[in-house]
Amino acid sequence: MPDADELVANALAAVRGTDVRQAERQLDQLMVGTGAADGTTAVDAALLRRLVRALGRLWPRGWQPVDVDRITSRRLDARAARLVREAMAAQRREQAEPIPAWWDDQLRELTAEVRDDGHDVLATWTAAEGLDRADALRAAVDTLALVESLPPIAVLRPPPGTTGALTARSAGTTRSGSPMLDRVRALLAKAESTTFPAEAEALTGKAQELIARHSIDEALLAAGSERGDVPGGVRLSTDTPYAGAKALLVQEVAAANRCEAVWSDDLGFATVLGWPADLVAVELLYTSLLVQATAAMLRGRAERRSGSGRRTKVWDESFLNAFALRIGERLRAATEAATDAADQASAETAGAERLLPVLAARGEAVRERLDTLFPGVTRHRLSVRDAEGWSSGTSAADRASLDVGGGRKQPRQVPGRPDRR
């Protein structure tokens, strides 16, 4: 009789194949177990061990806990994602030091807790999900197959157990304890809750002005110190529906905040590269603008004249694409106005130490980071599939004046899909 590890290996091989009957036979073998008195317990332990090992191999390959949770939910379901969270909590107990604080922050946000050694992860998860043993084993094997199949992605931050894991400054370092960010969050919360589009856009414009000033202050502070900051990165979800429109919104918000964005459509996220304060700003703005864009889209859909023969999905996508491009123009105008004012002030007070060379050097560092992490990135042009949706989306984003200057620009190319790895 095969041991538990062999049974798990056989089940995985069968699930990855094309013979459905063979896969069911191997799952039946898992049900039976090793034949020993504790055979089913041994199978559960073997499944968990292999899942924990697979997770441990992902961290040096660029994956972070939130990334694994997101793609498990996307490709399987919420039930599988909850199993992965439990496994990540168990794997955390085995991780080598040092463990960066941001890693534990991610695990806490996913509600995963590090439990004691006696905790039977698979049995507890099975009971919590209300599954019988056959369905639980099938779901566990599918989850393991997915985790083991994930490709390498860009390493944005040193993972646990590596040099620099505790000392590297990166995204999120300015997330808390900042009165400016608290003001931005308050403005964006008001923008999301108001039923008046003009007020929402004015509030968002004010938030971008505050963000731009804060970014400039951070740049000047870094230029005058030896903090050793380097460009970092974050990944933002671009799940269906309308994944392409969400990716475009990420790119527009990133560009307005001196960041670079790359969309990995097959993995369901966009990677944003930039300096820590700018990355926090992009996260805040993207999350808020996605809420605002969706609300505007639903209002626009309701206002469409009855009898329209165009498919709603095509109209929605065109609306969101137009909204993203126009909002991007307005955010960039706010950033440019703040930069011009700050540069004029620095010229009057700092002589030759002007702001623009500092920003240029930081921008070049971000582009170098992009070239290093994504050497094969490609671009593709945006296509308009519904003129009515496009016009409505532009109007929704252009309804109010933000009074920050800047003229209308032609739509920019959208950063496209990295070469599949």
TrEMBL record:
Residues 180-218 form the DUF2786 domain. Residues 158-178, 384-421 are annotated as: Disordered. InterPro entries: DUF2786. It comes from the Bacteria. This is DUF2786 domain-containing protein.
